[in-house]
């Protein structure tokens, strides 16, 4: 009887391990579906965009069956932690604050930030320079920041809530502005176009994508920003207890980069090589 029980236990333990391995080959990836060109939905409601295409390619490399699911931005990390899906690919920048809650793969793309305003706005007088890295601000860049602060003082700036862009506006680096938050970037864009806000802050490519669809009505102003509160690129988010999946994604990103897959998809969706 003892021998039979041991065999019985061993048999079901083997089945459990086999089923675990099978399930490990089926992963769910959460994305917002409302942040073009990173992720969006077409007219039929199908998820599309740079990260949807990239997720498909990474899953091929990892030999995993992947399902991409839609999730509101403000519930993205809690949904990952609760097990609704196994990974996040949603234009999520790698920041120290988020790394306290989840782990990130290496970055697969850069996300530079920019202010935008209507082409009829007086804010268009703000001159631009190529870029400012908040990790190392030069004297010239600080002068530009000071001018930007003066021009934006008291203005109402729209931003998607729970983002690195909101964190930047509230950090005080840009001076005293009125911050108006929205649930989605689409809502930000609509109020910008209607003139309800003076300017908005988001990824530069997000404004470029919207501008193309909206008939060239908005324009970027000031410098683009990276580093500091804007993090260290965009990566895949995974739960802290899922180290194997993190290793798989890092390996797949390496291979996709070497094969030129990330560069090709970035040029397709952004119009330039945003790969890291």
What descriptive keywords fit this protein?
276 residues; 13 strands; alpha/beta; 6-stranded mixed β-sheet; 5-stranded mixed β-sheet
Task: Describe this structure as you would to a colleague.
This protein is an alpha/beta fold. It is built from ten helices and 13 strands. It has helices spanning 2-24, 50-62, 76-81, 96-99, 139-152, 164-170, 185-194, 204-213, 243-258, 261-270, and strands at 26-31, 40-41, 47-48, 65-70, 87-88, 103-104, 113-118, 131-133, 156-160, 178-182, 199-203, 218-226, 237-238. The strands form three sheets. It has a six-stranded mixed beta sheet with strand order 8-12-7-11-9-10, with helices on both faces. Strands 4-1-5-13-6 form a five-stranded mixed beta sheet. Strands 2-3 form a two-stranded antiparallel ribbon. Strand 2 (40-41) and strand 3 (47-48) form a beta hairpin. The radius of gyration is 22 Å and the shape is globular. The protein starts with a helix and ends in a 6-residue tail after the last helix.
